[in-house]
Amino acid sequence: MNTIILQIASRYTLPLLLLFSVFILLRGHYLPGGGFVGGLVASIALVLHAFANGIKKTRELVKIHPGFLMPVGLSTSLLSGLFPMILGKPFLTGMWYPHSVPVIGSLGTALFFDIGVYLVVVGATLTIIFSIIEAP
Amino acid sequence: MNSNLIILPIIIPLITAVLQMFLWFRIREQRWIGLVGHSVSLVFALLMLSHVKDGSILTMQAGNWPAPYGIVFVVDAFSALMVLLTSISGIAVGIYSSIAIKSDRAAFGFFPLLQFLLMGLYGSFIAGDIFNLYVWFEVIIIASFVLITLGGEKAQLAGAMKYVTLNLLASVIFLTGIAVLYGVMGTLNLADLAQKIALSDQQHLINTIAVLFLVAFGIKSAVFPMYFWLPDAYHTPPAAISAIFGGLLTKVGVYAFIRIFSLLFINDTFIQDLLVILAVCTMIVGALGAINARNIRIIFSYLIISHIGYMISGLGVFTVAALAGTLFYLIHDIIVKTNVFLISGLLQKIRGSYHIDKMGGLYNSYPILSLLIALAFLSLVGTPPLSGFWPKVLLVKGAYQAGQYWVVGGILTASFLTLWAIVRIWSKAFWTPASDPDKLPGDIFRRLPFLRRAGLISPIVGLLGISLFLGFAWKPIADFCWMIATQLKDPSLYIQTVLQ
Lengths: 136, 500
Known about the structure:
The structure holds 2 protein chains of 2 kinds.
Chain A: H1 4-27, H2 35-53, H3 55-62, H4 69-86, H5 109-134
Helix pairs in contact in A: 1-2, 2-3, 2-5, 4-5
Chain B: H1 8-22, H2 27-52, E1 58-61, E2 72-75, H3 77-100, H4 103-106, H5 110-126, H6 130-149, H7 154-185, H8 190-199, H9 203-220, H10 229-234, H11 239-263, H12 269-292, H13 296-317, H14 320-351, H15 362-365, H16 367-381, H17 389-401, H18 405-431, H19 444-447, H20 450-472, H21 474-489, H22 492-499
Antiparallel strand pairs in B: 1-2
Helix pairs in contact in B: 1-2, 1-5, 2-3, 3-5, 3-11, 3-14, 3-20, 5-6, 6-7, 6-11, 7-9, 8-22, 9-11, 11-13, 11-14, 12-13, 12-18, 13-14, 13-17, 13-18, 14-16, 14-17, 14-20, 14-21, 16-18, 16-20, 17-18
């Protein structure tokens, strides 16, 4: 879509939406949100950019192949689940850093699990949508 | 007893798949990592079985949330046995596929998907929560959707459409059943459900839920009358994929049948009669389909259906002897069905076709290999003293003692028809000389280098060895199945261990 309005708008919405997706990711433990929704919002930002400026520009912007985010995210989540096992607790036990951290609130394995989910969702969604856009 | 050991069958395939995904474009490395992953899974499956073979039960509460509120994983002897069989079948298919799967299919992620499929299978065997079981079913079907269409041939897509539609329908029905069950009982933990259902006075509602589960698992395990998707779908993908499907995917349905209908919906004559009727129909219809088909993989697909009937009949009879027969048959069936599908792939490499009329003269070309294959076929039929015979003895004995003469008749008829189908393959493909030897397409197998040929043969020989072992060492295995059947018949230890 070659409209100048969408192109200008996507220039501003891209950083805003990405920031919003991180916000959603971080508030997701006790409030609505989390890695899955955050990942979807982040992929919407990039898909909107692709619609406005063409898929080639977005590929240049993202630099890495989005599919690569899937194993990275999976291993982040997996490691956050394995970490308590090293300390002799059951798989996926939530372990928390005892002191509060500015911006994030409390830091724990659940956050890393969610970050992993976020990355997998971004990777999978972008791989699917980019392949559909590029299909002949 | 809380133990992290039992989650490893899920974690190892996941780690393997993630490593393979990091090496997305390096197929060679993916093959090796896959083989290492399969071997490690096998070692841990053996270790797990050694912990529970005396009848004890291991549990693990994920996230340290106690049952029945958290998600609990439970391994009893039955689960450990299924995990072991899956890993044996997995390693056989792993070795075979690392040679037989061409790079164009592997480039779309065959090897990671195989690991995800195995992860789903292991997960559903150790799940102690009915919703968790549903989630693992989803993992299995999503991985299998991609595996069955990988390559994108027309026949594959046509078969996959039926497979996808029917399996999604089954998932919807299963999920509906779970939702109603949760609405009535307020819990999803299997042990907790077993306790609450036993005390409940809403028998009519529980029977409705049981029938929903029956339909859902019936579609998944291809029980009459919802079996028609299986022969259409299983003969289309490459042999390695149809081997893992034929060996394991329908057996997950059978596992779910046995687990749910021995733990939750018990002491109900209506459900048991229904299971017996469906089982007898499944045996006969499947076997009739098999004697009518000409494509070797369609014949084996119909035989899968027929033999699912044997296992369900044991569950319908529901005595310890019949259940032991069902379990023994399950062990035999996973090993042998995986093997015959691998064999069909090998025959296709030799003769260039899956059609029995186009094969011909295999015995003259490969006498020793043909005799090995004959042994595998005979254990599929159930000739004494091979592995298919003993479970049928147990099943027939159990059904006869319980007065279920229809089951006895069904098993005998279906066995005879199976023999017919197999003898026809043997006489057409092996004994009859090839009608026109010059017209045979090139023998791909003979031209392969020695190591590759060994890689294709070794899983077949290995599985054959296991099935011979099952036949000759039938006594300890029957005793083991008897122990599991006793445990299934009286689930109080299971309930106590999970809810302690």
